[in-house]
Structure formats: structure tokens, C-alpha cells
């Protein structure tokens, strides 16, 4: 099975380790043996002007997933929204009311579905490809999450000279390593079977970086980078 999945992750943190805004949405194509992706698209947000309610992330994820799916023709699209695997094209108001999610979640999805349900239905009519809201249980969604962390680090590399220093909160249970010409991200969860990702990049001179646990939130690592110049 060939699966396109999308997720948003990586956050700029303030000095108190509180999230300012999310950085990267990534859509990935995942194929057997389902450990990584060789084909992906990324969309960077402005983390300093970001809607943390979830609306922006969901909208960005479905749009980017459809963009990649039109290029690679997968069997299905997985979204990082835990709605029991329901098809997004079926998310009308009565269906959303019946979902076992919070009232706030229902409010957000009722608002989003006005645009996203017709979008998903039109895409399905054109391609036969379903977009399902499967959430964190999906391995391809997890791989997309790892790539979102990698691209958040890439964003930090690209912006550290301007900012002087940055704190980036990585997605759960993952670490990153910067090599000569690439960033490698790996799952820290031994139950996930060695999921990983890597992205080519230019590493600027005169930087210092370190990785350490977020002192406020277990299972999450912080990537701190500073420019020596």
C-alpha cells in the first residue's frame, strides 16, 4: 500500500519553553517497508503569527497532502486528526456531532468542514482516493511528524543568523542529528521499529547547537541553536 500522510510539527519556543507557533507542515509518501519517506513536500508557516487552535495546521495538512497525492497517486491519504478513520468527505455537521471528541474539537471541525469536506469530496470524485482522519495511530502520519521535526531544524539553520539564537521544540519521542550536508531525525520510541527521516541541507558556518529534554514536558526534546558571529 502506498500512503500519503501529512502532519505539522516543530515549534518555536520562548525562553520559558512555551510554544510561540508551529513551523513546518510536511506531506510524505510512505511505501513498504514503512520506515521512512523518499518523497515529500514541505510548507513553512510564520511561527510568530500562528493560529495554535489547530485550524491552521489541519487546513495546511489537507491542502499539502492533496498536492503531493496529485503527483504520486497513492492508495489513500492519512491526516493527523484522530476521528476514528472517518473519510473527510463524509464530515457533515450531523456526523461531526456524533464523533467522540471534545466540544471544542467539534466546533473546530464544523468550521473547517465547510471548506474541507467539499475539497475532499471533489478530490475523491476526481481520483478515487479517500482522505481519512486517522490520527496518531498511523505510521505514515508518524513519519510525517518526524519529517516536520527535521524541517523545523532546517528552518532554524536557515534563520539563526538573523535571529541570533532559537529554541525549537521537536515533536514527541524524536531526536535529530546534523551531519555535514543533511539532517537526520529518528524516533526515540523503541516500539516504532526504527522510523527515521533525512533531509539534505546546507549547514551554515559559525553555529552551535545542542539537543536536550524539554524540562516542562516529558517525551519532548528541545533543539537549541546559536550563531557565534
Automatic annotation (TrEMBL):
Gene3D superfamilies: Protein of unknown function DUF4152 (3.30.420.440). InterPro entries: DUF4152. Transmembrane segments: none annotated. GO terms for molecular function: exonuclease activity; metal ion binding. The keyword Metal-binding applies. It comes from the Archaea. The keyword ATP-binding does not apply. Keywords: Exonuclease, Hydrolase, Metal-binding, Nuclease. This is 3-5 exonuclease PhoExo I. It comes from Pyrococcus horikoshii.
Amino acid at each position: 500500500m502506498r500512503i500519503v500522510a501529512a502532519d505539522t510539527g516543530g515549534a518555536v519556543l520562548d525562553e520559558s519553553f512555551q510554544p510561540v507557533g508551529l513551523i513546518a507542515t510536511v506531506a510524505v509518501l510512505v511505501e513498504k517497508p514503512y520506515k521512512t519517506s523518499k518523497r515529500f513536500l514541505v510548507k513553512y508557516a510564520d511561527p510568530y503569527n500562528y493560529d495554535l487552535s489547530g485550524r491552521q495546521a489541519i487546513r495546511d495538512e489537507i491542502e499539502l497532502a492533496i498536492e503531493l497525492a496529485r503527483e504520486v497517486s497513492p492508495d489513500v491519504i492519512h491526516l493527523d486528526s484522530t476521528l476514528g478513520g472517518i473519510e473527510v468527505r463524509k464530515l457533515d455537521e450531523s456526523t461531526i456531532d456524533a464523533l467522540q471528541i471534545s466540544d471544542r474539537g467539534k466546533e473546530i471541525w464544523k468550521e473547517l468542514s465547510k471548506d474541507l469536506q467539499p475539497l475532499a469530496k471533489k478530490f475523491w470524485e476526481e481520483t478515487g482516493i479517500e482522505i481519512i482522519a486517522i490520527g496518531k495511530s498511523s505510521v505514515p502520519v508518524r513519519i510525517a511528524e518526524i519529517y516536520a521535526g527535521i524541517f523545523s531544524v532546517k528552518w532554524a539553520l536557515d534563520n539563526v543568523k538573523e535571529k541570533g539564537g532559537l529554541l525549537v521544540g521537536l515533536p514527541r519521542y524524536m531526536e535529530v542529528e546534523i551531519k555535514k550536508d543533511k539532517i537526520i531525525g529518528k524516533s526515540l520510541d523503541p516500539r516504532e521499529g526504527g522510523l527515521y527521516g533525512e533531509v539534505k541541507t546546507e549547514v551554515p558556518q559559525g553555529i552551535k547547537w545542542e539537543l536536550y529534554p524539554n524540562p516542562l514536558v516529558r517525551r519532548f526534546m528541545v533543539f537549541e541553536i546559536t550563531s557565534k558571529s
